[in-house]
Description:
Elements: H1 12-23, H2 30-45, E1 49-52, E2 58-61, H3 63-80, H4 87-108, H5 116-131, H6 137-150, H7 159-172, H8 178-192, H9 207-217, H10 221-230, H11 238-242, H12 250-260, H13 272-283, H14 288-304, H15 309-313, H16 321-334, H17 336-339, H18 346-350, H19 354-370, H20 373-379, H21 383-406, H22 411-432, H23 440-455, H24 464-474, H25 478-493, H26 522-528, H27 537-558, H28 571-583, H29 588-602, H30 606-622, H31 625-641, H32 655-667, H33 671-686, H34 693-704, H35 712-728, H36 730-738, H37 740-752, H38 763-773, H39 790-802, H40 809-819, H41 830-846, H42 852-868, H43 878-882, H44 888-894, H45 919-924, E3 925-927, E4 950-952, H46 962-967, H47 1004-1009, E5 1048-1051, E6 1054-1059, H48 1066-1076, H49 1139-1148
Antiparallel strand pairs: 1-2, 3-4, 5-6
Helix pairs in contact: 1-2, 1-3, 2-3, 2-4, 4-6, 5-6, 6-8, 7-8, 8-9, 8-10, 9-10, 10-12, 12-14, 13-14, 13-16, 14-16, 16-19, 19-20, 19-22, 21-22, 21-23, 22-24, 23-24, 24-27, 25-26, 25-27, 27-29, 28-29, 29-30, 29-31, 30-31, 31-33, 32-33, 33-35, 34-35, 34-37, 35-36, 36-39, 37-38, 38-40, ...
Amino acid sequence: xxxxxxxxxxxxxxxxxxxxxxxxxxxxxxxxxxxxxxxxxxxxxxxxxxxxxxxxxxxxxxxxxxxxxxxxxxxxxxxxxxxxxxxxxxxxxxxxxxxxxxxxxxxxxxxxxxxxxxxxxxxxxxxxxxxxxxxxxxxxxxxxxxxxxxxxxxxxxxxxxxxxxxxxxxxxxxxxxxxxxxxxxxxxxxxxxxxxxxxxxxxxxxxxxxxxxxxxxxxxxxxxxxxxxxxxxxxxxxxxxxxxxxxxxxxxxxxxxxxxxxxxxxxxxxxxxxxxxxxxxxxxxxxxxxxxxxxxxxxxxxxxxxxxxxxxxxxxxxxxxxxxxxxxxxxxxxxxxxxxxxxxxxxxxxxxxxxxxxxxxxxxxxxxxxxxxxxxxxxxxxxxxxxxxxxxxxxxxxxxxxxxxxxxxxxxxxxxxxxxxxxxxxxxxxxxxxxxxxxxxxxxxxxxxxxxxxxxxxxxxxxxxxxxxxxxxxxxxxxxxxxxxxxxxxxxxxxxxxxxxxxxxxxxxxxxxxxxxxxxxxxxxxxxxxxxxxxxxxxxxxxxxxxxxxxxxxxxxxxxxxxxxxxxxxxxxxxxxxxxxxxxxxxxxxxxxxxxxxxxxxxxxxxxxxxxxxxxxxxxxxxxxxxxxxxxxxxxxxxxxxxxxxxxxxxxxxxxxxxxxxxxxxxxxxxxxxxxxxxxxxxxxxxxxxxxxxxxxxxxxxxxxxxxxxxxxxxxxxxxxxxxxxxxxxxxxxxxxxxxxxxxxxxxxxxxxxxxxxxxxxxxxxxxxxxxxxxxxxxxxxxxxxxxxxxxxxxxxxxxxxxxxxxxxxxxxxxxxxxxxxxxxxxxxxxxxxxxxxxxxxxxxxxxxxxxxxxxxxxxxxxxxxxxxxxxxxxxxxxxxxxxxxxxxxxxxxxxxxxxxxxxxxxxxxxxxxxxxxxxxxxxxxxxxxxxxxxxxxxxxxxxxxxxxxxxxxxxxxxxxxxxxxxxxxxxxxxxxxxxxxxxxxxxxxxxxxxxxxxxxxxxxxxxxxxxxxxxxxxxxxxxxxxxxxxxxxxxxxxxxxxxxxxxxxxxxxxxxxxxxxxxxxxxxxxxxxxxxxxxxxxxxxxxxxxxxxxxxxxxxxxxxxxxxxxxxxxxxxxxxxxxxxxxxxxxxxxxxxxxxxxxxxxxx
Length: 1149
């Protein structure tokens, strides 16, 4: 018999729900309710039941624990279905996690291996594991959220339960819901911290591997952020975490700098390359929030260095000073208190090191950028003092080089010391550019020091460019600068001149001034140099080194030259003796610098550019990659400099040059060369120097081609160029519109030719991108009152492409979907609008769609056009447009030789439009184009169109005779439709839309009874094949046959519910009546040409050819068909009944 329970279990069903009701309203009650629940659980755990199994075998049942757990999980079931974002549900999740943590703390106080708390936690985990595979996404997400919150507070778990939980969480990493994947990542990250790699099986990957996969490839930014924050921060995972600095999501990139990297106690735990990568990518990010986070991180690094900016600079490699420079400028902004402590006194300048020299130069540039004159004045040294500092430092450098030659010191120490002095000299020279040289004494001293340094053969090449920069600042004009540099070059190349600085006692005399130059000796010294054949191998090597140094000086001074070549006559000797011979050399470095120098000369001498341009083009094909890059830079610089053309007065670049560059781009394999060609062509197009559509097409295809997927430099260049090019002017958008179909077809071909491992965007995505680039509303400075009709022209191009029945259904579907993305302007020219509507109105009849989705997409665009341009289409008349020469090419393209008498009749937009008649009136009356007598004929005042007459068939006038009908010819009307329609101009009733016709379904007898009044027969029974437009299906009849789509009659692009009885072609009945004496019922539908019958002739506004002009190929043979054969072709003007047939139809009715 069970003992009397001391605790009422029935009270749990009341107390536990009240606890959950409290915790979902406020988090402040969580701790109190955890204690309450624990007391309930402890009391329930004491309620047990003993079951006697016989033979002294008794079983103890924990009925109290089971009851508590069931009620607790029943409460959780009510939370699992709550969607994300509900505050009450999130608070309950936090409370359950808090309660599990509370249970863990209580269990740690007990020595027992299995406690009621551990059994409850295991039961809770098994409960959530069942929900991992739930069909409801909210249930899966909530279960994973519960586990992600409580897994961190779990103590020891059973091995089987741990394995089951781990496998289930790894499986959820591939869940289709990104929220479920994110919670799985959080849970696994906490399990990974306690995973023992020795417990893994041979083929079982560690948890960290799965988490890194999610970090790399998961498409959802929330999942990548969860992995970034929760993956264990170890030296092995740090490189993977740093890759998220290049993530596509700005918030993910920000978290790297704000949440991940601050965990490091000191930046020296990173390598130099990692620190430079963090500074460069963080401060150079395109998002402001990321740059701010990176600047704060660098501020933390300064604090880690105890505010010592010199120690902070040592975190970076001074060989790449631009990164350290950007980091310092960031610190100047975020740590202003540190900057105030810098003192540029004599002690600072006397103990210069690479770090302090970089600090001084960067601080001066920062003050100049911020226009802080007071700080700048205190930081800049005196010119004379800096000149002496430069002279002393360079002499120290020469001593270090001399010690290296003599081998007195250790090799590594010598190199490090020489590099430190070289770097310090470079920073001082860059600082000297910003000094004030109004003091003539200081200027002369600085000029002498810099000139002697440049004339010394041991000067490192890295100091030549900043040295020339200081000379350019001190020189009174450009001509004097060129003269001084040319003199230095000739002194270097003349091996017989007496140097003021000797090798045995290498010191610099700083007394040389501008007045010591001897221009008369320049030409003589250049001639003293011996011929190459007279030199030994050692002398040749030394001469080549001197030439490289001289070419470096030439490049530096020519980059600063802006006047013409004729104004700097001293350059002629350097060009003849140094530059041109270097271009002819086989040594790559000499040849490369010679080409660059010659190209810079061409920029200031047009005649030289014309004569040397072919030389640079020739280097692009055959030279090594480094030389090709330099040659391409020279070519594009020349093209950009001489925008009026090199081969004549044209304002654009020569087509031969463009074709050559495009051919090089297509066959080039080097990524750097491809990127440089695209960059150069993009610049030429932005400046309007290249307008060739082939160039734009090639650049667009290079942007999306799978072949350039790994060329990020190329894609980044084009990603900036293409939108800027299109949004800069409407003319550029029109040019982009003109290549749309060509580029679209090429992209489709690229997609078809894709290999298995390649991937690229779809044709629809490509078209949407081009439509966005051609949006006239996004043009800079676009006028809202007069928008560009670029999308109207684009719609015409797309519609012309849709007239090609040979296109695959997928392509036509994509093109129709793109039509819906177009932005139509409020105003457009009449000719352009009518061209658009002619193509829209005839497309479904001439080139129907096989896919219903495509058909609906086009119909929606047709309705959009009619609604948007309703007021402008009121005077549209297709027959009048047909006789207008402006639209002849359009009708010829679509293959229409006799258009319908189609007019735009929008009842919702046309004033005084009558309401549709009832079904009875529609059956009794037929609308015709015959005009009323003069007394009854009227014109609408608002629309200017002639009203039509409803004629009862019983009182209809008799049809004219055959002779009268043969003399009738259609009278052309004007496109505006304002001319009154003559009585000789008739149209069949099948071409007149009746609103009730598409809504009513009549029987076959009603169809025969409502047969339209016949029309004028053709002149002759002969048929001439129509002209077939390029890239359109062959059309052997005036209107291409509709595909077999049931018996639905198509009118104006909409399927009618009315089904017509199959009728024979009335035009073929005349010949048969004469032979067999029978008559046929007239029909409004066009008969399909069948074998054995000659098709009817067609009346055209153009003169008909004589029978002698018609060849056998122009005659189409057709076969006979049975009288009851169904006709599924579209209505057309080709069915023109004869007078006899009309009389027969009248008697039948």
